[in-house]
Amino acid sequence: MRGVGSARAAISIVNALPLGIGAAVGIDWPARATAVLDPDRSTEVRMTVEPRESGTPLVHTSARAALRRFVPAASGRFRLVVRSSIPAARGLKSSSAVSASVALAAARAGGREPELEDVARVAAEVGRASRVSATGAFDDAVAGLLAGGVVTDNRRDARLRRLDVDRDLRVALWIPDRAHPRSPTVRRRFGRDPALARRAVDAALDGDWVRAMEANSALVEKAMGYRYARVHDAVQEAGAVVGGVSGLGPAFAALAPSRRVARVLRALPREGRRRSLRLFLEVPEGRGEGR
């Protein structure tokens, strides 16, 4: 049987490291996985991954975790093809997107159609177990699978609320050419300003995602040592509604009305990459979520 799964990159509204509450919104930059399960009389799954460089521990662990959860009797040859151009370790949730797309493809290859939040829980469990993420990043996985902004409790892998994000907004990304460290290694830094962390979380829980993103970016910039004051000023002057660090950075995301996004993109620094994308706020007509 064959199964296809996709999950998108996302940008942070609130980083879950300080208090365990996170918020994110997906962006239209997908990771895709195709899985084929050929059952036989063996008692184990024999896995191959293409291209070879995609056969990371995260991919193998995600596929096996999904099969255990959704297709516990699976056996035979399992072939997996993974495609993702989301840059790793930049704050754009590449690990969550790859893990969730692989988990969804594996479940579908076994003839199952799981709830997408359950797929996100698999990705979160894998993230914690592999120490890719200190919290599991359930918010990031949900945002990449379900259209619209989301607030989650990553301590319980539970969705708390959806966020009403203007459908006319687009995101202008600045992606510097440097990577961030793994979140478990910097978690302690995020406990230094609990009042600011609480302000970001409370705003998100109230549905004020702009104020939440502003407070979160201030917190992340302080914790990670980013000096983005000029970037904030530049995108605001160009017409952005809000801008902030995504994840642990160094990527910076500015949200602006579609008529202004080109100007905002030009205002971002020239170092690294700049890219404008749609937010993942609705499922394209004729396509199921995650397909």
Task: Characterize this entry briefly.
With about 290 residues, the chain is an alpha+beta fold. It has 9 helices and 10 strands.
The helicity comes to: 25-40%
What Rg, in angstroms, do the CA atoms define?
A: 19 Å
Which fold name is given in CATH as the topology of the largest domain?
Ribosomal Protein S5, domain 2
- Classified by CATH, the class of the largest domain is Alpha Beta
Strand segment count: 10
Question: What shape does the CA trace take?
Answer: globular
Whole-Å distance between the termini?
15 Å
Output the structural class. alpha+beta
Number of helices: 9
Tally of separate domains? 2
Descriptive account of the structure:
This protein is of the alpha+beta class and 291 residues long. The protein has helices at residues 57-70, 94-109, 116-129, 138-145, 183-186, 194-205, 209-224, 229-238, 261-267, and strands at residues 2-14, 21-38, 45-50, 76-84, 149-153, 158-163, 169-175, 242-245, 252-257, 273-278. Strands 1, 2, 3, 4, 5 and 6 form a six-stranded mixed sheet that branches. It has a four-stranded antiparallel sheet with strand order 8-9-7-10. Helix 2 (94-109) packs across helix 3 (116-129) and helix 6 runs antiparallel to helix 7 (209-224). The protein starts with a strand and ends in a 13-residue tail after the last strand. The model is unreliable at 285-291 (pLDDT under 50).
How is this fold's topology laid out?
Elements: E1 2-14, E2 21-38, E3 45-50, H1 57-70, E4 76-84, H2 94-109, H3 116-129, H4 138-145, E5 149-153, E6 158-163, E7 169-175, H5 183-186, H6 194-205, H7 209-224, H8 229-238, E8 242-245, E9 252-257, H9 261-267, E10 273-278
Helix pairs in contact: 1-2, 1-3, 2-3, 2-4, 3-4, 6-7, 8-9
